[in-house]
Structures are given as C-alpha cells and as structure tokens.
Amino acid sequence: MHELISTIQVLTALIGAFATFFAVLHKSHHEDYADKFKTLEKERDNLAEDYENERKKRKELEEKYEKLKKKLEDTV
Hints:
This protein has helices at 2-28, 30-75. By secondary structure, the chain is an all-alpha fold. The longest helix has 46 residues, at 30-75. Residues 30-71 form a coiled coil. Keywords: Coiled coil, Membrane, Transmembrane, Transmembrane helix.
C-alpha cells in the first residue's frame, strides 16, 4: 500500500512539473504574440480595404447594368 501511495505522489509531482514547464514555456513566447497581432491587424485592414474596393466596383457595374437594361427596354 505504501508503494502505491508513493507512486501516486511521484506521478502527481511529475504532472505538476510538466504543467509548470509548459506554463513557463508559454509565458516566455508571449512577446511573439505582439508581432503576430500587428501582422494580423495589417492583414485585416488590407482585406477590409480590398472588400470596399470590390464593393464599389460591384455597385458601379450594377448601375451600368441597370442603365443598359433600361436602354434595352426602351428600344424594344
């Protein structure tokens, strides 16, 4: 019985050591996240700008289409 309790204590200590190791490892790479966030924000801004440009083009094309459609209807 004593061996079982000792084994459980050792396993618990190992799990605690791994958890501490991963927590320290995660915190040490925290500065990398700032650069990643900046990159993602730039990509988001670029995508938003591209979307707005495409939206303007689509609206212009829809207006031209409507004008041509009206012209066609008037000639028929």
